[in-house]
Amino acid sequence: MPKRAFTxxxxxxxxxxxxxxxxxGDAIVRGLCLRVTPGGAKSWSVIYKVPGEGGYTDTGRPLxxxxxxxxxxxxxxxxxxxxxERATEVLRSVLEGNDPRRTSGPVDTVASVVxxxxxxxRREVSPAxxxxxxxxLRLHVVAHWGARPIHSITRQDINEHLDKMIVDGQIGSARExxxxxxxxxAHAEQRGLILRNPMSNLRRRDPQPTxxxxxxxxxxxxxxxxxxxxxxxxxxxxxxxxxLTGCRKNEIARARxxxxxxxxxxxxxxxxxxxSRREHVVALSDRAWNVLNSLPRLPGPYxxxxxxxxxxxxxxxKARARIGGDWSPHDLRRTVESQMARLxxxxxxxxxxLGHSQGVLQRAYNRHDYLEEKRAALALVAEAYExxx
Length: 389
What we know:
- The chain is an alpha+beta fold.
- It has 15 helices and 10 strands.
- Helix 1 links the parallel strand 1 and strand 2.
- It starts with a strand and ends with a helix.
């Protein structure tokens, strides 16, 4: 396209083409152009490409998509100076990753899209996963970009945010934030709120979080059991069952009486409350069953509660402080796994006890519930605690 340094006098003197349409580019503002029809009508438009609309390279460089055009108005109603001002405004918005064609309707901010996604996610993930999603998004996404239009978040913004978290020592949080941002941006792209997902093909070599936690040895586990029995219901009883079942903290602390299967002497955690969104059967050894039978039956649905069963107990550092010992609730789960391995329990059974995910073929063809094998493995663990073997 031929270029000229437009002036209003020069535009006025432009002769219309005999046929077709004449198009000239501005030598001052790149992308601004003037169209002249055979009838002598003259109008301004700006041509642009949106960075990232064409995807990203392996190194994360945004690729421009197709060419777009926005009409700015006819000359002389829009003079040369005003046309350059409007074109500059459009191009500045484009550099920020926006497409100026999308100007109608309310602006979809990061905060508003997060709220809508969280509302939908309530029906898609387990309560524990939803709480983690909400915490990460509110703390590390909404707090940082909440008021910004979601289409203005660029790959550069995301990398800078994650880099800062890692420099600040928030390595685990950075990994969780990246996962939640991937889900958020995919949600926005599928609903047409952004033209291109800035998380698509994002390659980062972030450091792995330092492994935390440990497994208690037999003597420590015995001391924890003794302290738990001395503390009693509800925190002590939760601790006992964590050491006797290998469950996660909230799988016991938030257990309900209607999960108890007295016929098979087990605890059936429904899919809606389990991490992997599938039902999990917790086999109870004789010792674990005796602990459960010794608990008070409160009017409310929750087994462990300080409010008459209406709300589950809050189990955490408070319990450890009152029982004594250097461990976290998840360390008790690691302890059960380590003891089963030490006692020669088969990996397949150990995985079933802990509720680890199974392969597709295992889920499809292996319908054996392993209830008695799991109960026998946990009985060995309980005996080891008591005997100090």
